TrEMBL record, chains A, B:
Protein name (record): Transcriptional repressor
Coiled coil feature spans: none
Alphabetically ordered keywords of this record: DNA-binding, Metal-binding, Repressor, Transcription, Transcription regulation, Zinc
Cellular component annotations (GO), alphabetically ordered: cytosol
GO molecular function: DNA-binding transcription factor activity; transcription cis-regulatory region binding; zinc ion binding
Protein family: Belongs to the Fur family.
Organism listed in the record: Endobacterium cereale
Binding site for Zn(2+): 95, 98, 135, 138
Amino acid sequence: MNTTPNLTKNQSLVLDVLTRSEAPLSAYTILDKLRDSGFRAPLQVYRALDKLIEMGIAHRLESLNSFVACAHANESCCGHAHGHGHHGTVAFAICESCGQVNEFHDHAIDDRLAGWAKERKFKPSKTTIEIRGLCEACMH
Amino acid sequence: MNTTPNLTKNQSLVLDVLTRSEAPLSAYTILDKLRDSGFRAPLQVYRALDKLIEMGIAHRLESLNSFVACAHANESCCGHAHGHGHHGTVAFAICESCGQVNEFHDHAIDDRLAGWAKERKFKPSKTTIEIRGLCEACMH
DNA sequence: GTTCGTTGTGTTATGCTATAACGTGTGGCA
DNA sequence: TGCCACACGTTATAGCATAACACAACGAAC
């Protein structure tokens, strides 16, 4: 069981499923994996996911309509730890062959996007960066 | 009518709708706008969109499940024009209040992502960058 | 010009993704 | 005790996307 404090039962169950998975999972796949634990409806999954994402310990992959556990949940690399290793914008490299996801973040990109936003007086709330392609293992 | 050459009738109709719209449109919204032109089924829209995106004259916004006409269809700023002003990865700033979308691209970010990919021998096929937030006009 | 492959089209049916709306239960706190 | 905030459970519905099949239009090759 994942022992992150202050998680409700449903949130823990969903996070566990995500943490154990090699690849991102859709909400409905999560639901299926949790039927034995008493889950019956999509909303139970979506509500847990919303909270996990809000806490920064799970992420949504927009280009896949799927979800992953945060790979950096215990780091706080950017100087301002918000309880769960909050860092700047996170980027994902997603292999379209094996489905594996690599999470990373990059100050230079953050700065660049922040600069663009500042120039235009645009106030960012959430930024999505996803690279789809082939990982080394899947290339010929 | 949009006069981009080599578009089929359906593709032109869809592109026209996108071009005239201030904000991104979902496939079903496009469908509704084209009922009078004979469209009856989602697939007619999706097929046209697929081609337009492939040609680089429309984009999909992953975080909205919606589509926009390319704002730079006639530019070729990065030195290699692929017929339709093909440039590097495109980024979008999306106002969550008014819905307006600002399309831009940034060499530094491109380079940075390319560098990351090269280091890991990851071969990118498509990159998504979307900033959601509030535009200047919508801030208080 | 006929044959054939490719591409676009039209249609029905279906599957996947996400949320609305309502009600219940529980724990903190004045 | 009464209230409030929040998690949870359930049903129904809305919104997004594609499978599978059939037909038409076009160009290239012969």
